[in-house]
Structures are given as structure tokens and as C-alpha cells.
Design a protein that fits this description.
8 helices; 69% helix; globular
Length: 142
């Protein structure tokens, strides 16, 4: 038996990702996929041409979300991912494209298969919440 925390406990997920360096590699791969994968064309158009700020913000967010330093909050302040994304008409296909980019980026990482599976399952939750927030905002505007 081990005393090592499981993914989602303390900073175990952050450590499994390789800390901020591993997270930045994931984010770089994620946006590289988004730039080149035809299925991601619509979500890529939701981003500015220069992805540098988006790369930093996603890396900082994932750091805290995975149990590491709360770099996003320290640098940019607090954020509600669903509320922030509600300004775009994001639907289920967009969330699936986003997750597809993330799945391909995760596959490129030198992580254990168990952590890769765990992370993709966890990322599906905020992806679905973003869709729900966008749908709620659209319904409120009608």
C-alpha cells in the first residue's frame, strides 16, 4: 500500500503532468493541433491570431486546476471558465473539437496511460459546462 495521493488529490495531478513545464508542453501541443486539425477550424476562429496570451492563460489555469500553484489567479485574477466562454455560441460539436485537440495533445505527452485517461475524463467536465453556459446565455437572449 502506498501513501502517495491519487490523481485529483493534493498536487498529484500537477506532479503527474510534469509541473508547469509539462503543462506548457501540453498547451503548446494543444494549440498546435488546433492550428492544423480541420475539425478544430471553428474553435480556432474563436481565438485571436496570436495565441501567446491564450497559451499562457491556459497553462496558468491548468496549473491551479491540477493542484499546483494558482498561477492564473496570481497573474490574471479569478475566472469562471463557463461564464468566460458563454460569450461565444459554443455547442456540443465545439466542445468535442476542443476535447479532440486536447486528446491529441495528451497522447503526445510522456505520461502514464492512467494519467492520460484521468485527465481527459476530467477535462470533459468543464467542456460540457462551457456548452451549458453558452446555451443558457443564448436562451436568456431570446
Amino acid at each position: 500500500m502506498t501513501d502517495k495521493p491519487g490523481y485529483g488529490e493534493a498536487d498529484a495531478s500537477y506532479q503527474a503532468a510534469g509541473g508547469i513545464e509539462g503543462i506548457r508542453r501540453l498547451v503548446d501541443d494543444f494549440y498546435q493541433v488546433m492550428d492544423t486539425w480541420p475539425d478544430a477550424e471553428r474553435i480556432r476562429r474563436m481565438h485571436p491570431a496570436d495565441l501567446s496570451p491564450a497559451r499562457d492563460k491556459l497553462s496558468c489555469f491548468l496549473s491551479g486546476w491540477l493542484g499546483g500553484p494558482r498561477l492564473f489567479q496570481e497573474t490574471y485574477g479569478s475566472i469562471s471558465i463557463p461564464a468566460f466562454h458563454a460569450r461565444w455560441p459554443i455547442d456540443t460539436a465545439d466542445a468535442e473539437a476542443w476535447l479532440g485537440c486536447m486528446q491529441q495533445a495528451i497522447a503526445r505527452q510522456p505520461w502514464s496511460p492512467a494519467f492520460k485517461d484521468y485527465l481527459l475524463r476530467q477535462l470533459a467536465v468543464p467542456a460540457q459546462r462551457v456548452v451549458q453556459a453558452a446555451q443558457a446565455r443564448q436562451a436568456a437572449q431570446q
